[in-house]
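cron nightly-structures :: item 1 of 1
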Amino acid sequence: MTRTCHLNCIIPPHILEKLLRSDESEVRQAALDTLLTTSRLRGERGVRASFAGAAAAPGGGQRTVFDCKNRTFLLSAVLARSEDGAESADGSVNRAFDGLGATRDFYRTVFNRNSIDGHGMRLNAFVHFGKKFNNAFWDGQQMVFGDGDGRMFSDFTGSVDVIGHELAHGVTENTAGLEYHNQSGALNESMSDVFGSLVKQWSLRQSADEADWLIGPEIFTPGIDADALRSMKAPGHAYDNDLFGMDPQPDNMENYVRLPDTEMGDFGGVHINSGIPNKAFFLAALRIGGFAWEAPGLIWYESLKASHSETQFQEFANTTYRKAAELFGDDSAEQLAVLAAWQDVGIQISGILAGVARARSLAANRSGGPGGDSGLATVNQQIGALAAQVTGLAKDVTALKSR
């Protein structure tokens, strides 16, 4: 299957657009330079192709970090650290190297996946890209990190979940190939947030209730009043300040944001509407409990592999429900958690009556979490009551027809 490689940036265009309106000329200039460089790179297929052979060649996920020396031409970058090389004196080089390793080891250990493409793809990263470049991106072949402007954003190698997020775009490209616009694009972004957060949680051995569920909290300078770029736990509440405005992410389908399918429209709001499936994953993980990379992470990973380029929210929700049953059994704690999570963000699993879904969700919550014996008993009782009501209604309709 042919994959469409896209320039996937961690900083969404709506934030950079806000910065263009800043009263400070330095802030405006940094935002403008970042937008112009990003736009240019989107059109430079040759940049991505230049390293395609080396990046894609099987190598057991070996890492190589290059230093751009504050230039934007990747071919001029110099080797800074290789898999078997010594630690660098440059902190950015070492952080990028370690982040690549943490992500590679996460996929290998948790999902038995051999690097990003599943076939040992080499992992290349470029640091010190451009001057005051306020972004980090995956371009279909490698990771590229800006240093930030020091005023709002710091070095983008400083956040392991940002590295995990960007590399997850490579996983998506090599599995479902989710098209980068509208709902499929928002799912693409959400999968990167999910696995970026899981890489961090796995590295820190954090349980679902211990994790902060924030994406990129380290990339803001201390002078910026913001928790992170996004919050999976509370979409729409990651930041609210004069520079960026208020976090626009919705956490429910009733607030889905419709934007133009253009670069400045964030290709239909892919960084914005990703808040909806993000919240669903968080809720499922919290209900299941324990380590989020185990049951919920496996369900989402298998669902990604079972998806296709144009998968929408509804179809993906249905797939996670089905995969939960395949992996853990019908009416298992895991499947009930998935059902309740999607229902809470306004997406009803297809083929399940709203009343039945609500009864299952309520029963799961009353039992202190889905899957308890008392919860399942209550669910069965309420399903039986609903079935009796449906039967009674059917008889009434038959009687009316006969009249």
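cron nightly-structures :: done
The chain has two domains: 1-174, 176-352.
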